[in-house]
Amino acid sequence: DIQMTQSPSTLSASVGDRVTITCRASQSISTWLAWYQQKPGKAPKLLIYKVSSLESGGPSRFSGSGSGTEFTLTISSLQPDDSATYYCQQYNSYPLTFGGGTKVEIK
Amino acid sequence: QVQLVESGGGVVQPGSSLRLSCVASGFTFSSHAMHWVRQAPGKGLEWVAVISFNGGTKNYADSVKGRFTISRDNSKNTLYLQMNSLRTDDTTIYYCARALTYGQAYLDYWGQGTLVTVSS
Questions:
Q1: Which residues have a Cβ under 8 Å from the Cβ of A66 and sit 6 or more positions away?
Q2: Is B110 on the interface with A (CB under 8 A)?
Q3: Can you give the pLDDT at residue B11?
Q4: How many contacts does A have with B, using Cβ atoms within 8 A?
């Protein structure tokens, strides 16, 4: 199984800050990586697929990059509505696997 | 608009069975692979199972293989998860989710989830 490791597990930043979350795969997953945002009590919501493709309706301040085993999700200017937990997920092969999550808090 | 509505969760004893359902609307259900993903309260996401658009291909997480069965009825726009031999560590929220295809398995729509509690 491909292990997905996210860092940090928690981050606290101010409105307007640039925020970066890292996701590492235990083996190459090419560009088969998605990012999700989950708010408390809600289902996850797809943000980005295929590393950098922004899901329709997603805010343009979210972007993704990387390939192979190392990937990043960047929020260019953190907004209050971005307070949530973010998960990466590989779909290079089954079983699908998720990272452990990064909780983003607003200072 | 796309909607996925799960049902069937509840409180059951260890060793018992439960069947979850997920009714889809707002899209051509028979064109999409479908998944079950679960999440223990306060924990991360765990993929459970996938079924291809026509039900011909299925895959399971090792943690549920041999105990859970995923199926679908395209005439009813409904996805199912039959869960047998339930254990206390199956206590989680179960989400159904849509994927573009079996291979393009990013999950673009999710249901609201249904809670399964396995407890004696």
A1: A23, A33, A51, A72
A2: yes
A3: 97
A4: 54
